Amino acid sequence: xxxxxxxxxxxxxxxxxxxxxxxxxxxxxxxxxxxxxxxxxxxxxxxxxxxxxxxxxxxxxxxxxxxxxxxxxxxxxxxxxxxxxxxxxxxx
Length: 92
Known about the structure:
UDP N-Acetylglucosamine Acyltransferase, domain 1, 0% helix
């Protein structure tokens, strides 16, 4: 399922997943069995499996996420790989 106003790049694969509104998904991105909420930006070459990505998250290029939860507004830096982790901004 793809939300209103969302854009996908070339050679993207989305299987058994829900993509929210106004998301930008780069090229060569794989999304499997995941939930991606509104206003999420996913860079080129990312792989997301079994994960929940909250609103306003930015995944830079070549990020790998498997069985992760990413909190609202979090930025995942390029080239990082995470398995079974919860990522969120630290509260001040």
